[in-house]
Amino acid sequence: MSYPELARRVGEVRARIAERQAAAGWSHPVSIVAVTKTHPPEAVRAAVAAGLTMVGENRVQEALAKQEELSDVQVEWHLIGTLQRNKARLAVNRFALIHSVDSAALAAELDRRARPGSRQSILLQVNCSAESQKGGVTPEELPGLLAEASKLPRLEVRGLMTMAELTEDEGVQRAAFRRLRDLRDLAGRDGFDLPELSMGMSGDYLVAVEEGATMVRLGTLLFGERGT
After folding, report:
1. Domain map of the chain by residue range?
2. CATH number 3.30.710.10 is the correct assignment for the domain at 6-223
3. How far apart are CA 34 and CA 178, in angstroms?
């Protein structure tokens, strides 16, 4: 499978990000995480050829299989999907960044399973949309999780992640993203350095950029509809 439109799409996305950042007064870099879930390994090769350096996978086993097949490809692997505690041993030290740490128990298991002397970079997932079907701690629970995870010697908490409600209402989207940014800023006042805000997907990434996202997770917008 080839992706002949990918380079053009990446260029368009970068231009739109730059426009929205300028309008909102932001100047920090925004990383594009190309979501290759359910796409074949060729999608990863195409992403790299189009100038992308980060790919995101939802499922640990699928990602590990691709990593083995693409051992010759220089790319940064991110785990963006829900991670169960019993799969922490498979994920730790295999991803540059795990976006979806949502409990002290999972953080502790990742720390326990990490190689001695290593540090696994993670984001803490926050449910800013108050939807029961979504993962993540509540905003009120975040300070406790942040305090616990930051004590673990083999983890590095790099920032926060959220998903907005699946809606075309930009006001609803914006409220979730702004809440995450506010939580990051509050944590900063307590001495926590959290440079990364992973928020925004194909349908709402421009609103996320306006609210200060440093990473956007794009699949459909780049590769088209995925399989199951």
Report:
1. 6-223
2. no
3. 23
- pLDDT digit string (tens) for 129-185? 988 888 999 999 999 999 999 999 999 999 999 999 999 999 999 999 999 999 999
Residues 73-95, mean pLDDT to the nearest whole number = 97
Sign of CA dihedral 84, 86, 90, 91: positive
Q: What totals of helices (H) and strands (E) does the chain contain, helices first?
A: 9, 8
Spell out where 14-129 has E strands.
31-35, 54-57, 76-79, 97-101, 120-125
- pLDDT for the residue 3: 94
**Phi and psi based region of residue 159 (left: phi greater than 0; alpha: psi -120 to 50; beta: remaining):** left
Q: How far apart are CA 79 and CA 96, in angstroms?
A: 8
- pTM of this structure: 0.96
Chain center to CA of 72: 23
144: Cβ contacts below 8 Å, ≥ 6 apart: 104
